[in-house]
Amino acid sequence: MDPASENLILNGLRSGGLSRHHFEKELYISFFYLIKEAAKKYGIESEEASSVYSDTIIVIIKNIISGKFEGRSSLKTYTYQIFSNKCVDLLRKKTTNKGKLEDTMPYDSLVYELPDETRSVIQALIDKDERQQVIDRLQEIGDKCKELLLLFEDGYNDKEIAGHMNYQSADVVKTTRLRCLEKLKMKLTRILHQNE
Amino acid sequence: MNNSLNLIDDYFTGMLTDDERKAFEQRCLTDSAFSKDVATYISLRDGLNAYLQQQRKEEFAKLHQELSAPAKPAKIVSFKRITLLAAASVLLIVGWFAFLRGPSPQKIADQYIAANLNTLGLNMGSSDSLQAGIAAYNSKAYDRAEQLFVPLTVKTETASEAIKYLGLTHLAIKQYDEALKNFDQLSAMPLYTNPGQFYKALTLMARSQGSDTKQAKEILEHIINKNLYGSQEARNWIKHIKN
After folding, report:
1. Is A19 in Cβ contact with B159 (below 8 Å)?
2. CB-based contact (8 Å) between A119 and chain B?
3. Contact, B127 vs B114, CB < 8 A?
4. Closest A-chain CA to B159
5. Per-residue pLDDT tens for A132-155?
6. Is A163 an interface residue toward B (CB < 8 Å)?
7. pLDDT tens, position by position, A31-45
8. Residue-range definition of the domain harbouring residue A137
9. B51: nearest CA in chain A?
10. Same domain, yes or no, for A61 and A135?
């Protein structure tokens, strides 16, 4: 991939807006050939390589949007490194038969934004099953609430969401967003109480 | 959670000062009700993130399938089939001459492009670069027009116009694959009046390869049924497109 195409993808992802989705696909297609190479090099199934590749692209999109990717290496090198590391992780997991990694927090959990001491206190309070329950309850909070929360989670800020969803201001979006979170929490709490 | 939710959200969206952050982190260690609220907030946001990732993985899996679809194997043609094909070809030639009585879809597209898309209105754009791109297009400096439109496709305020003009530029220089990509992208945008589908049909008619005209006809039918941009032209053109 030439530097101009890389820049186009990077700018497309960073600029937000509705065209971002298009550049996510472009990024996926750009290094798609790595799947075949990895299946050969690491002796893993094509399906597994494809799943690892999807995870890689998701991480890269997130890092580009959040500014973690600073452009010190080319996008190609960056993708190759993350993808290779993930393939090695998969191999290690398979060979040591430690499939129990699901018990840990996801690598991109917000909990990692807390300093060590605080993190261990909060982490102990987090019920790992709640993640799935949040997904299950998401359909019950209304389409607008769902769209708003997912846009925010996808890296759009309140101001961008205001423009996209025709809210009067970023402040109105924030208030509505927190109300939606509260609503989701209520749904979740009700289910947790029922299960007790 | 109501009172603390705002504060917790401010922490995780980077809205607090250093001192406020430290106070927040300290409170997590000493105030058990507050730390429970923080844990719940994280669970909710992690759950939303997990849902998004699930969705994205499903989209990528579809894309993977499309990209890995094997090329159709060459068919083994029997003698009987060759005879049938020859007979069909004769019929096709006869049909073709009948068909030639009306203008071909390619000719219709060429005529439309020559009459309507050789010169674009300069007052249509809002940014200077967009105007410069249109000016380059109008003076047939298509490479320059492309260079000017591409960076504007990623700016929210100019994206839809720039993608449309970029598509028209690709259409003008007969880079049909690129033009189709641009018009697909335009079609996906939530615009009050979206010409994406109409220009896509026009591009397919201009290219007229393989199943292009069939696909163009389907799009034109859709435009007519939904009364979308270009429905008047679509009504006239569709009479001349045969499958």
Report:
1. yes
2. no
3. no
4. A19
5. 889 989 989 999 999 999 999 988
6. yes
7. 988 998 988 888 888
8. 127-195
9. A135
10. no
